[in-house]
Amino acid sequence: TLLSLQASKKAAAKRGKTAQRGSSNVFSMFEQSQIQEFKEAFGCIDQNRDGVINKSDLKETYGQLGKLNVSDEELESMLAEGKGPINFTVFLTLFGEKLNGTDPEETILAAFKLFDPNGTGVVNKDEFKRLLMNQADKFTAEEVDQAFSVAPIDVAGNIDYKSLCYIITHGDEKEEA
């Protein structure tokens, strides 16, 4: 009925706001209507309704879609992306990373470590700018300046890439204040 639908919408909106105040800002990445759609999708995959997506849930979901020959390795690989039990928050985070084109923090850190063979935790701004503008998908000077505008750069011209990785994957704390 319309009244119960409205009440459940209000409850879902309230839950979304409560979740936003938690340690994860993943809920702020999506509109409330998108979160509800993801919640419905999660419910469809969570076949046993225990609040966690596991291998049997995935296998059953694939079976319902007509794909019966999914290997355990494929299923385990999917589950490994969550780096632990896949509850709704983890599920939403995985979609946020995929939809926003942001790699997980440890992937970005590993890439920066290639430019930091001595493990100092910093890369030189000028050297990094040269690499960005001359390698692979070449950045323009404007794109480099935009990237550096949020980068924590010390007086010696070094980028604290661990902090930058955090900003890339979690947002700039100064923006949220």
TrEMBL record:
GO MF term set: calcium ion binding
Transmembrane segments: none
Keywords carried by this UniProt record: Calcium, Metal-binding, Repeat
PROSITE patterns for the chain: EF_HAND_1 (PS00018), EF_HAND_2 (PS50222)
SMART domains: EFh (SM00054)
Name of one Pfam family that matches: EF-hand_5
Every EF-hand domain range: 33-68, 103-138
InterPro entries, A to Z: EF-hand-dom_pair, EF_Hand_1_Ca_BS, EF_hand_dom, Myosin_RLC
Entry keyword annotation includes Mitochondrion: no
Descriptive protein name: Myosin regulatory light chain 2
Organism (species): Triplophysa rosa (Cave loach)
